[in-house]
Amino acid sequence: MNSNGLNSQSLISTRVVNSDSESDAGDISIRAGSLELIDGGLISARTKTAPGSGFGNAGDIVIAVDSLLRVSGEHVLPGPDGVGFSSEISARGAGGAGGQIDITASTVEISDTGRISASNFGESNSGSVSVDAVDTISMVNGTIFTESGRREGGNITLDAGNLISLVDSALETEVSSSQGGAGEINLGQITEPRQIVLNSSSLISNAAAGEAGDITISAGYLIKSADTVIDAASDNASLNGTIRIDALEQDLSGRLVPLELAYLDVSSLLLPPCAARVDADRSSLIVGRRPGVANDPGGMLPSPILALDTSPANGGRPLGSPVRSGGRNHPSEFAQASLWLAPRIPGAGEIGGVGCGDGWSRAVGP
To answer: Which of 1, 128, 181, 259 is the most exposed place for a label (fewest CB within 10 A)?
Structure first.
């Protein structure tokens, strides 16, 4: 019960509660656009659940959904133990046979401990489970199982037009008595999907001493992880079931390579400085820009370059320097400088030479 006094676990159920009754549980038929059974929701058609009681048969469950059918989550009871009840579709018989479960939808999702089961405890056969999806059947931490105590176990059949995907999930048929055989597991027998993906999942048909059921997988492609288990086994090895796979099988475990943990040493990709390459007996070509740092907008302007007039008339003195004439110093007139700064052009013998240069030279005249 929640704080409003309402039961937070939704339930659709037909059930025989008298342990001495031979009556059958009623059938359940649901037709809907979509159906979500979450947080411990239950759809059940069963007789008294104690072994050896209730001799009637469990009811059948038929669900037809236009779009999505989802079975997901669990209802956890308050208390320190944290006991929970998974969302489930169940047809369980005690002394009588288990019921049949037939599900059709566009997409079926079973996740977060969600379950579909058909079982019985007595002298009758277990029911079977059939899931048919137009597009996809997706199971993530979900289970579909059939179980019989003493007779024949029920089959599990999954069909989808596009994809059947199992991740951390299980399909299981089991018989605990030596008198009966376990049910079969069939994937893609009526409608073959394009792909079947089995990731860390199990397909198991197990019989205590009787015959294990066959497991058949048909698809365009089968992608299976290395830790997926497909097993049809009996305690009597001569009664093991047969495993048939009709698909292009892709085992990715042999193609995936773990990444190395070593980090990339970028220093091995960097060239050493010029000085370190001088002795490397290698040629080098350097394209440089004019050296120096840009002027600070708030700083002082630099003084002009002192140029030399190398013409014979000036005697090689700096422009603007005084010239003696008749014992008096007369400043010479400033004229437009005939000098410029130019990139240094190496000589023919320097092209490709060893070492580095800054690419600039002194002032040169015309």
So the answer is: 259
